[in-house]
Amino acid sequence: MLLRTTLFAVVLTLILAACVIGDEEDPATATPAPTAPITGADTTPTPAETGTAATATPVPAEPSATPANPTETTTGDASPTPTTGSVSESTATVTPLPAAPTETPVPTATTAPQPLPLDQLSVGLELVTGGLVEPAGIANAGDGSNRIFVLEQPGRVRIVDADGTLVETPFLDITDRVGSNSTEQGLLGLAFHPDYANNGRFFINYTNRDGNTVISEFAVTGEPNIADPASETLILFVEQPAGNHNGGHLVFGPDGYLWIGLGDGGAAGDQFQNAQNPGTLLGSMLRIDIDGAEPYGVPASNPYIDNPNARNEAWAIGLRNPWRYSFDRLTGDLYIADVGQGQREEVSFAPASSAGGENYGWPIIEGSICYPSDPCNADGLVLPIAEYDHSGGNCAITGGYVYRGSQQPGLWGTYVYADYCSGRFWGLRQTDAGTESQLFFQRAGALFSSFGEDEQGEIYVVSLESSSLYRVVAF
């Protein structure tokens, strides 16, 4: 990679999947593994596995169960203090509200744009602003302001105005309580409440000084560009046994619930045996009702709600390190980019009709191949809809979004994603015939760390190498 010497020290402390290099083969020398024989998994729709684990329609309005304990401990020790400073931990148990949460509106169109064939698309990046410090995430508030919020790993949230101006004063600065000593630690996730325009509530996912995951609620002040760092209220605390595979993303789904992706606890090879254990929150996709109880409720339709041996917050299991996931804002389908061990990077999928309970297979499989050796029994596992190997410097996927904006009609319906190490940038579409993908371009050394959407559905990406925010354009 063509990294400038002056950036080398910074990159070593940055987040993301670069940390997977420490527990996998050298991407420059790794030999792509042949597909191993898998028994039990349905592989008929090659190369596109639909990944449908259920077809039941989610209940639109439901009560929420109160979780037994919002604190997750993975090592058996007593739960440590979740953070330092001004965190106020909620401990009261409240009867869940019967009303369903506010649903995020799904845009409709009388006539969908006609996308170009993937191999006829020219895709590039348009600079919006530079001057960021270790950018690690992108979000919008959905409040009509058209602002873009960029997460900086050390613990700040920056605002980029609708005209592309980077606001000098951070929206939020919690560097006093964020720990970012490992490349996958720091300020990792931001999601605004669906009714943020009226209630000013938003949620942050970060690792504290001890390296543990903290998910907290904050509030904006009377000044719309300034949040109150002293307003922090603890929602969920998860003890992390290692410094990597923290996941970190937060998303409010079309159902109005908060979706939380957690990695398997780190190190390598799922050595803590979390990803196939529904009794832990690690290695799982969680779905909680932030309005249903204090500190949160659990939707009654969650798949493990009646399983006494499982955490009922879990929606799906078998994840290694979900580094960015997103809902198609038109269809409600869920795309999960899961960082691999040493052979495969994958895009996993759940249709909007899913009733949950998917098992994405880690560490039985990595992508669609057996791990750590073959043969393996993949009965009941959901295979990825797309994957790629570690040849040519690939090492870790950065998940993106399905394009549903208006300015790039040729890109309509295309899921864009990238590789953090190689700088390759792809597009993917699902059709009745399967999944097709196309390499759009490669920008070696860019270190694409995260994607995001603005309120209109335009897609953006941040680069650690250039400390900049870009808009994805197609022509």
Explain how this protein is built.
- The chain is mostly beta strands.
- The chain has one domain: TolB, C-terminal domain (Neuraminidase, 6 Propeller), CATH 2.120.10.30.
- Helix content is 3%, strand content 32%.
- It contains two helices and 32 strands.
- Strands 3, 4, 10, 11, 12 and 13 form a six-stranded mixed beta sheet that branches. Strands 5-32-31-30 form a four-stranded antiparallel beta sheet, with no helix packed on it.
- The two termini are 28 Å apart.
Short description:
The protein contains two helices and 32 strands. The chain has 475 residues and is mainly β. The chain has a single domain (5-474), classed as TolB, C-terminal domain (Neuraminidase).
Number of strands: 32
Ranges where pLDDT stays below 50 over 5 or more residues in a row are 1-37, 39-63, 68-110
| Gyration radius from CA atoms, angstroms | 20 Å
Number of domains: 1
* Major β-sheet profile: 6 strands, mixed
Distance between the termini: 28 Å
At the first level of CATH, the class is: Mainly Beta
In which range does the helix fraction lie? under 10%
Write the CATH homologous superfamily: TolB, C-terminal domain
Average pLDDT metric: 83
Count, helices: 2
Reported CATH architecture = 6 Propeller
Would you tell me which CATH topology applies? Neuraminidase
- Derived from helix and strand composition plus strand pairing, the structural class reads mainly beta
What gross morphology would you assign?
Answer: globular
Strand content: 25-35%
